[in-house]
Specification:
The protein has about 400 residues and is α+β, with helices and mostly antiparallel strands. The protein has two domains: about 5-190 and about 355-405, FAD/NAD(P)-binding domain; about 195-345, Helicase, Ruva Protein, domain 3, CATH 1.10.8.50. Helix content is about 25%, strand content about 25%. The strands form six sheets. The chain has a six-stranded antiparallel barrel with strand order 13-16-15-14-17-18. A hairpin with a 4-residue loop joins strand 5 (about 95) and strand 6 (about 100-105). Helix 3 (about 80-90) crosses helix 4 (about 110-120) and helix 7 crosses helix 9 (about 325-335). The longest helix is centred in the last third of the chain and has 16 residues, at about 390-405. It starts with a strand and ends with a helix.
């Protein structure tokens, strides 16, 4: 039987759901409030579109933070290889880069959108742009949707409206309202993969300082709860960059006023090796002031704070530095302290944590356990993962399951 299906939201989940639902012989309408499909895809991977991750699919679960068990059926039903092959079928070539991140060979997110648009066109999906959904009504195993003030009838619906991050792309959280009105539980929404505000006002002095190959350790009081190695950047409010965004994902279950950080600027050197390195530098700069003797070891912008925290006079000569002061330097370089204040707003988050409770969705079909004929896909569900293409893959995979099962 041919069903008339509405898919609300033309992001990655909605696009994949629409294409496969139409491929099954349904009459599919992809309803999008923006003037083009895939608006959020345009900004992923800094505008290059980090399509997915090329790691083995069983390793994906190590990068999923929330409700990973819910995603077994979807990720194994439509894998990273499947989305790559689908895009190749529609003319897109890809490259695999550091961290197994997959990008279009052209480095243009628009080429990914073009391939997905061809996928929709070939499967005869009816695309409704500039179409704002105001209300969804459940009418005895069918649905009525208010689109731009006009009531339209559908047999089944897939809600793929995304989360609440990047509202400029259309992810304004309206899907949560629709789902709640239809009887679903919404797990409280929080920003995920988001920059962090720190308590120290002086951090603005370090704005723009980018660090590579550092270790960011997170403590609850004095207990180590998480550690991330890689790149970060200081901002006017605190810290951001890949390892900070990943760290933010792990903090939601902790008492945030007890959180503090320590940065290890030289994780490749243990205390003894770092001490020996500083001794060598001090010999080299024996007749200079301490503020001019650490530039071989640390970025210039951080040196004043390291010296201050080590309790050393900024103007002190290297040949006057005591053993205790040198050991204090080593300690600060390995344990540079910062205090957590808050997360930046959800408008700056890469993804949304929270959403439709997974307990109310069939993980094998993405159909609601509460309302027959209602399906969910993508970020609207209470699932989220780390950066690197994993969240987009979740969108494709859940969209695929919803599309083939509706």
């Amino acid at each position: 039987m041919k069903n008339k299906i509405a898919i609300i939201g033309a992001g990655p989940a909605g696009i994949i759901a629409a294409g496969f639902a139409a491929n099954n012989g349904n009459e599919v309408y992809l309803i999008e409030k923006n003037n083009k499909i895939g608006k959020k895809l345009y900004i992923t991977g800094k505008g290059r579109c980090n399509i997915t991750n090329a790691s083995p699919i069983d390793e994906f679960f190590d990068y999923i933070i929330t409700n990973k068990n819910f995603l077994y059926s979807s990720l194994y039903s439509f894998t990273n290889d499947d989305i790559i092959n689908l895009l190749k079928e529609y003319g897109l070539k890809v490259n695999i880069e550091r961290g197994n991140r997959v990008f279009p060979e052209s480095n243009k997110s628009s080429d990914v959108i073009k391939a997905l648009n061809n996928f929709l066109t070939e499967n005869k999906v009816n695309i409704m742009l500039n179409s704002n959904v105001n209300e969804i009504l459940n009418k005895d195993e069918s649905f009525q949707i208010d689109v731009n003030g006009e009531l339209l009838d559908f047999d089944k619906i897939i809600l793929a409206t995304g989360g609440k991050s990047y509202p400029s792309t259309g992810s304004t959280g309206d899907g949560y309202i629709f789902a709640k009105n239809l009887g679903h539980t919404i797990i409280p929404i929080k920003p995920s993969l988001v920059p962090i505000v720190v308590s120290e006002n002086w951090v603005r002095e370090l704005q723009g300082l980018s660090l590579r190959n550092v270790n960011l350790r997170t403590y609850l009081d004095n207990k180590l709860i998480h550690s991330e190695f890689g790149e970060m950047i200081f901002t006017h409010y605190g810290i951001s960059g890949p390892i900070v965004l990943s760290t933010s994902n792990y903090l939601h279950n902790y008492k945030l006023d007890k959180i503090n950080f320590k940065i290890d600027f030289k994780p490749a050197l243990d205390l003894d090796k770092l001490n020996n390195r500083i001794i060598r530098d001090f010999q080299k700069y024996n007749n200079k002031m301490i503020k001019n003797a650490l530039s071989d070891l640390l970025p210039q912008k951080i040196i004043p704070k390291v010296i201050e925290f080590a309790g050393i006079s900024f103007e002190k000569m290297v040949n006057q530095i005591t053993k205790e002061e040198r050991e204090n330097l080593v300690e600060i370089i390995k344990n540079f302290p910062l205090k957590f204040d808050s997360f930046r707003s959800i408008n700056e988050a890469i993804v949304t944590s929270g959403g439709i409770s997974t307990k109310e969705i069939n993980p094998s079909t993405m159909e609601s356990k509460i309302i027959k004929g209602l399906y969910f896909a993508g970020e609207i569900i209470d699932v989220d993962a780390l950066t690197g293409g994993f969240n987009l893959q979740i969108a494709y995979s859940t969209g695929y399951l919803a599309g083939i099962n509706i």
